Structure formats: C-alpha cells, structure tokens
Amino acid sequence: MTGVLIESRLPLPLLRRGKVREVYAVDDTTLLLVASDRVSAFDVVLHEPVPHKGAVLTQLSAFWFTRLAGVIPNHCLSAHADEIVERVPALAEHRDALHGRAMLARRTTPTPFECVVRGYLSGSAWAEYRQAGTLAGEPLAASLVESARLEPPIFSPATKAEEGHDENVTFDHMARALGRAPAERLRRASLDVYEAGRAYAAERGIIIADTKFEFGTTADGTLLVIDEILTPDSSRFWPADRYQPGGSQPSFDKQPLRDYLAGLKRDGRWNGNAPPPPLPGEVVAATSARYRDAYRRITGQELA
Asked: How many CB atoms lie within 10 A of CB 28?
C-alpha cells in the first residue's frame, strides 16, 4: 500500500475534484475515479488526511459491487491497477498512485439526489426525530429511542451539495423533481441493495445502521449504482454484539472524528462550517484504524 494521498494529479482530463476523490475522463464512455485520503464530516472537508481511507473506500466498494451485482448492476469496470494501466497506457508511470485507490468506471448521468436508507435511528435522523418526531418531514412512531431499529428500513433522500450541507427532503419532493416512476425505481433499488448488504454484514457481526447510495443511468436508460457503496464514508457500521438501543453506538466508521467535531460544536468552539478545526493525531489514528477494521471484518481480508 502506498503512502498518504491528499490529491491525485494524473495525465488525463480532470472532470471534478470532489470532497474525497478526483474524477478523470478516459474516453466518451469511461471514467477513472481516484479516492484520496481526504476526509469529510458534517459535509466539511478536514485539513488532515486519514491514512488508508482512500484504499478502503475503493477496495470495499469493489468488493460490494462484485457481491451485489445480482441485485443491481454497477459502474465498476476494474479496480486493479494493472488492468487500468493496460486499458489506459498513459497511466503507466502512475501505477503506484493508482494501486488500491483507483476504479475504472462506466460513465452515467448521475441522479441529483443522495439515496439514503436508514435501518436505525441515528445521526441527523435522531436529531430531527428528537426535535420534531419526524424523519425528512415524515412522522415516525412515538417513543422511539436513539439507535432504535426501524422496521422496515426507511428511504430518506437528500439533496447533493458539492459545498456546504446536504439537505434531507421528503420522498414526495424527490418524486416531484424526477417524476413518480423514476423516484419509485430509486427507492426500490436503494432498499433492495441495503437489505442484501446488511444481511451479509450481519453474518460478519456488523450492523449497517444506515447508508447512502448514488445512482446513474446509462445512455440506454439502465440504472447503475455508482461512486461508492456500503463503505465507512457512506454508512454507519456497528458491532452487533455491542448494540444497545437508547444511546450512541460504538462503530467501525469515522465516528471518532464525528464525535470529536460534535464535541467542539456543543462547546461552541466550531460552528459546523468551513474552515474546519485541526484534528489531534490520536483522532486521525483512531479513525484510520476504524476504516481498516471495517474492511477486515466485512471482507475477511487485510487491506491490499
């Protein structure tokens, strides 16, 4: 595994430098995604990178894309550096930077919503419920506690934001924007992938409390799951043997970082917007360890 990567610079046209990854154009039908070790929380990119994070996002996504291909097709063509270089010879001198972090993917037209599925009441969903008894504006049952299991899981879309905060919206809002049939299609696909993913994770002793998916359509209208899938950046992973409803849960994701920043917000030392505060080294190290542990527990392998 190569060292920390804050950002990639490759001899391909750069289409987008997002919060945590760069997207390059390979040709009219193909993209190259490179996951850096930048990390975001509360929709703000932190100054300090988290070692191994980019590799976990890419390799864990590749694992899930393969495992869940029978549930829904995806955009992944290859996540192997040698195969990518064979396809794109201009990248030959950059193989080390690509190793473990890069994914060759089909181009799609992305859906302009985050497709969030919540199986447990946590994070921003718990904050909204505690204040208003709702989730994305829709009423929930009374007397739920923090981290309560939601059965069936709830589809809770959100707007996408390159900068600033994503915003939870109702399904009806999404349906008005996209049309009822496309919105129903996205809801069904999101719930199906979540159910399949959490069933497998449960066998590994992990609860996937919530997650968000991104989808895109090809020129012929095929719906693909894109970007990343069921990773510590897009999901909350909890150890099943330590689950106790009624409070926050230990986790295998970036919770150490979230908890530190949440404490600063509570104490009035950060307003939740850019610029972010500096992170102590122990918070960075603990977050990196959680990413690696999530990969190990889900795949049964060490990070390549």
From this structure: 7
